[in-house]
Specification:
By secondary structure, the protein is α/β, with parallel strands linked by helices. The chain has helices spanning 20-28, 47-52, 61-67, 79-82, 101-110, 131-148, 178-189, 201-211, 222-231, 306-327, 329-335, 337-340, 353-359, 366-369; strands at 2-5, 32-36, 56-58, 70-72, 90-93, 113-116, 170-174, 193-198, 216-219, 234-237, 263-266, 287-290, 293-296, 343-346, 349-350. The structure holds nicotinamide-adenine-dinucleotide.
């Protein structure tokens, strides 16, 4: 199979669909790989690094799209990219179609077979191609929170780890899933005094077994959340109710209970935010203040560290890329129901129920799509 890896063209996107490591594996499996010139530059991978492992570096996106049987990307295809897709071609990338009728219409019209990273599942019912980005955002949250706590950024001027003879900062992490666990780990590692709150007792039991005394766990009752934010220098919001907007765990009136200059990092902003006063920000202008509390609400946090994010995502996508290339998409999806769960669009049909329900479009079951 011929695999194409174009340069991402969405604003501020510096990740790339394939690393040189992935290219090397694909070539070892007998495939050809076309990489658009400059595709890896934002993540620190030069054209020479791709060429050294056997990729053909092509000058334009047109060429990568036109010659490839399968396109591997990061972000949903932009209008110019959608115009280059065709029937019989496979697209493997994040799509997030439910809120995006224009993209859905174009993908259906193109006839492409599109497999979405965000709906591929694993044996435990998890989302293995979303988890790496949650891990990155979680580890990044205390780092950006520490930065926002600096006086020059409007914060209360405390260092997470304190100093000899000086108290450590108090960090509250609300939500103890993938993001929250990584955030609590890193905040504790930076020397802060960390409390993690979640509504799931089994989850807290697991975390308690895994992490012991490194941070404390509390049931996220309204009272416990209020006590935690009142004591905190830094609050990290990491709650998720799958398929729903994030619940508001901190109301505006409660900001008055907090320490002036305390920081809220709302990682759940991509699901609408879990603090009432959150609104999405960008890496260019990441923070703002409400009632004396600094808010950091960047919706694509992993974009701040494109090299780490690219490698983390690539580690997770590689087995699927190889299966799709080795077997062809039909056989690969036939053999692996978790990959089949990623099929969103095939030959003019929508094949993912939740997207169909969100957009009011009839859906062909993914199993039936395998026969078309
Ligand atoms: N901003 C970004 O760049 C970025 C990057 C990755 C993930 N995210 C977002 O971060 C959020 C968390 O993702 P995740 O992968 O950790 O999800 P997850 O499902 O692994 O964890 C969510 C946790 O929240 C808990 N929870 C639900 N309601 C709660 C409540 N009211 N109080 C306390 N805990 C509650 C759940 O029990 C669960 O443990 C999601 O909204 C995700 O989309 C954002």
């Amino acid at each position: 199979m011929r695999i194409g890896c174009p340069k991402e063209i969405k604003a501020h996107e510096h990740r790339v669909g394939l690393t040189p490591t992935a290219v090397r594996e694909a070539i070892a499996h007998g495939h050809e790989v076309l990489v658009e010139a400059g595709a890896g530059a934002g993540a620190g991978f030069s054209d020479a690094a791709y060429a050294a492992v056997g990729a053909e570096v092509v000058a334009t996106a047109e060429e990568a799209f036109a010659r490839a049987d399968m396109i591997v990307k990061v972000k949903e295809p932009q209008p110019a990219e959608r115009a280059r897709l065709r029937a019989g071609q496979v697209l493997f990338t994040y799509l997030h179609l439910a809120p995006d009728p224009e993209q859905t219409r174009d993908l259906l019209a193109s006839g492409v077979t599109a497999i979405a990273y965000e709906t591929v599942t694993d044996r435990m019912g998890g989302l293995p191609l979303l988890a790496p980005m949650s891990e990155v955002a979680g580890r990044l949250a205390p780092q950006v929170g520490a930065w926002a706590l600096q006086r020059s950024n409007g914060g209360r001027g405390v260092l997470l780890g304190g100093a000899p003879g000086v108290e450590r900062a108090d960090v509250a992490v609300i939500g103890g899933g993938v993001v929250g666990t990584q955030a609590a780990r890193v905040a504790a590692g930076m020397g802060a005094d960390v409390t993690l709150l979640d509504i799931s007792l089994p989850r807290m039991r697991t975390l308690d077994d895994l992490f012991g005394d490194r941070f404390r766990t509390r049931l996220a009752s309204a009272g416990a959340v209020e006590a935690a934010i009142a004591a905190a220098d830094l609050v990290i919001g990491a709650v998720l109710i799958p398929g729903a907007a994030a619940p508001k765990v901190v109301r505006r009136a409660q900001l008055a209970l907090m320490r002036p200059g305390a920081v809220l990092v709302d990682v759940a902003i991509d699901q609408g935010g879990c603090f009432e006063t959150s609104r999405p920000t960008t890496h260019v202008d990441p923070i703002y203040e409400v009632d004396g509390i600094v808010h950091y609400c960047v919706a694509n946090m992993p974009g701040a560290v494109p090299r780490t994010s690219t490698i983390a995502l690539g580690n997770a996508t590689l087995p699927f890329v190889l299966a799709l290339a080795d077997k062809g998409w039909r056989q690969a999806c036939e053999d692996d129901p978790n990959l089949l769960a990623g099929l969103n669009v095939h030959a003019g049909h929508l094949t993912y129920a939740a997207v169909g329900a969100a957009l009011g479009i009839d859906v062909l079951s993914a199993r039936l799509a395998l026969r078309r």
